[in-house]
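--- STAGE predict ---
source: upstream dedup step, 1 unique chain passed
mode: sequence only
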Amino acid sequence: MIQIGKTYTLDVVKQVNFGFYLNAHELGQVLLPNKLAPKELEVGQQVEVFLYLDSDDMVIATTQKPKAQIGEFALLKIVSVGRIGAFLDWGLDKDLLLPFAEQVRPPEEGRGVLVHVYTNRADERIVASAKIDKFLDKIPAHYKDGQQVDIIIAGTTDLGYKAIINNRHTGVIYTNEVFKPLKYGQRLKAYIKQVRHDGKVDLQLQRGSKAELDQFSTLILSKLQKAGGFLPLTDKTDADVIYQQLGMSKKAFKKSIGGLYKQGKLTIADDGLHLTE
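--- STAGE serialize ---
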């Protein structure tokens, strides 16, 4: 079913002076204005577009890419504040409304706010809400340990970082397992560490699989060779330093050098790692 607020690949069925009409099935024929149409577009071709309502509440198509679609979360910048709410830059010519009733703090121009994009049932308009918890799935999550997921950093807790998982659930990345700077609203890949008996989800930024550790081991050997056989890194080195130099967590680093040591490929001294000749 075709709906506004989503991206689709649609057939071009008619060309007029001001643009192209696309077959949007249940929504009828939708206009793609000339200024937003790809060059050389012709009737009979297909084009990927995002559907939304224009200022006259007409369904219109655009080739611009929104920063979030219906059902998704994103960190969006406040570009202005009006009498009905704040307006957010979501990548389209028409800004996205964040009504005052859906805000959790007074809006400030230039500030980023994490929002959920949804359709307001009262008037079918696409709007945003900063009250993100009410849009998260209350049904217990069913993820497998080690499963890769998409996350958005939604804030901090006493334990670490709160993250939105696959636009549906929340999880936590513990502070002692964070090996790189994380920012509010940041999107990245993560892995399910475990789903606890109470339904809460623990996340980790690296899977720690054998293939991943093999890759890290290869990287460490390569770095040692390029550095003349010595790296001033040990299991006591700060996690931030390890990540800056090798791009891996301290836990992965310790496992990797332990394996390489057992294979006789390096030695671990007080001053650092030495490549075995």
